[in-house]
């Protein structure tokens, strides 16, 4: 079964063709990072305009790379949320128009669930479920109990900033570029993680929830009156990264104990971080599965992959954008 995936939830325009939920024939990602980086974050109106300009070209390239025609596609899977409303509308209307004109079935896919599916489709072996899902992205930080593909319940989530957002905001405070994650990772390699005692927030009575808004404020007050040298910046980056990743590790270990499972699937842009991967591989006793390559980022292959597993009785007109989709507790 050939599934065409379409992803426009934030600032990547992506189309992919995936066979039977796992075999990626193409995964074309047009990133708008260069457009948004000069503003220090994603500008929603600009993201929408660039999705409109890019999406037809991205689709043509995805079909070309996969060496298939639109007529050969069996199902269209589109990210229906969570995301920016204008950005979602572009992908959804594009997908609806394709489905209606080609008389193809269509399914709306949860972008956050797809980030976890990215780790599943990256492995040669079938998923080990039930498992713990750890979503670490620019918009989300969640611990979920994965009972089966697409059947998840929430164990913990951030009550304020997402982890990637905390990287981006901390980088901004340090006068570094956007997105902050890759820059902080690079500088942290040269820094002393023990120099500053930063701490991620704890939520009273909810030990599996996260809070990352306080740590960026702590960074701000720590450096406010300092004349920062390059070594100081590296030390701040390393101390910040250490604090947030040890917080994620500790809560992941707690969640494993609570849920009693034997595998962890991680997903989202922050999982590109090699220090995070080393930390989990060395300290976490449970098998960890990561998305490979481009599947860490926002991409349409994960949307097509998860879409394959979902029932697709929806008419093109029943899919609506959902800017927030809570996991059920
Ligand atoms: O999953 P993603 O592409 O978009 C969302 O769905 O949010 O994640 C983007 C986020 C950004 O906040 C970015 O700073 C962060 O992922 N990120 C990283 C790294 N690469 C990207 N964070 C830490 N270390 C990295 N190497
Ligand atoms: Zn994402």
Describe this structure in words.
- The protein has 329 residues and is an alpha/beta fold.
- It has two domains: 2-115 and 295-308, 2-Layer Sandwich (Nucleotidyltransferase, domain 5), CATH 3.30.420.40; 129-290, 2-Layer Sandwich (Nucleotidyltransferase, domain 5).
- Helix content is 42%, strand content 19%.
- The protein is built from ten helices and ten strands.
- The strands form two sheets. The protein has a five-stranded mixed sheet, with helices on both faces. It has a five-stranded mixed sheet with strand order 8-7-6-9-10, with helices on both faces.
- The longest helix has 30 residues, at 230-259.
- The radius of gyration is 20 Å and the shape is globular.
- It starts with a strand and ends in a 21-residue tail after the last helix.
Question: Brief description of this entry?
Answer:
The radius of gyration is 20 Å and the shape is globular. The chain has helices at residues 33-37, 44-66, 85-102, 111-121, 163-173, 180-188, 213-223, 230-259, 274-283, 300-308; strands at 2-7, 12-19, 23-31, 75-81, 106-110, 131-136, 141-148, 151-157, 263-267, 287-289.
């Amino acid at each position: 079964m050939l599934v065409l995936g379409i992803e426009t939830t934030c600032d990547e325009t992506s189309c992919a063709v995936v066979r039977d939920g796992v075999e990626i024939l193409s995964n074309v990602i047009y990133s708008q990072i260069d457009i948004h980086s000069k503003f220090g974050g994603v500008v929603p109106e600009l993201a929408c305009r660039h999705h409109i300009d890019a999406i037809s070209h991205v689709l043509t390239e995805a079909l070309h790379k996969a060496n298939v025609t639109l007529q050969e596609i069996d199902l269209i899977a589109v990210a229906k949320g969570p995301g920016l409303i204008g950005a979602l509308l572009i992908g959804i209307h594009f997908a609806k128009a394709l489905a209606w004109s080609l008389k193809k079935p269509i399914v709306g896919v949860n972008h956050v669930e797809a980030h976890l599916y990215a780790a599943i489709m990256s492995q040669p072996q079938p998923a080990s479920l039930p498992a713990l899902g750890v979503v670490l992205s620019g918009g989300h930080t969640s611990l979920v109990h994965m009972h089966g593909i697409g059947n998840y319940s929430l164990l913990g989530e951030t009550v304020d900033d997402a982890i990637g957002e905390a990287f981006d905001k901390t980088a901004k405070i340090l006068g570094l570029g956007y997105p902050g994650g890759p820059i902080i990772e690079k500088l942290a390699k040269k820094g002393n993680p023990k120099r500053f005692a930063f701490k991620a927030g704890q939520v009273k009575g909810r030990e599996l929830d996260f809070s990352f808004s306080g740590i960026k404020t702590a960074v701000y007050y720590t450096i406010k009156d300092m004349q920062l040298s390059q070594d100081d910046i590296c030390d701040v980056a390393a101390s910040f990264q250490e604090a947030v990743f040890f917080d994620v590790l500790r809560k992941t270990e707690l969640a494993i104990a609570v849920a009693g499972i034997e595998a962890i699937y991680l997903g989202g842009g922050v999982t590109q971080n090699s220090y995070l991967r080393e930390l989990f591989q060395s300290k976490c006793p449970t098998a960890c599965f990561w998305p490979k390559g481009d599947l860490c980022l926002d991409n349409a292959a994960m949307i097509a992959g998860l879409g394959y597993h979902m029932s697709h009785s929806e008419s093109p007109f029943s899919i609506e954008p959902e800017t927030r989709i809570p996991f059920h507790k």
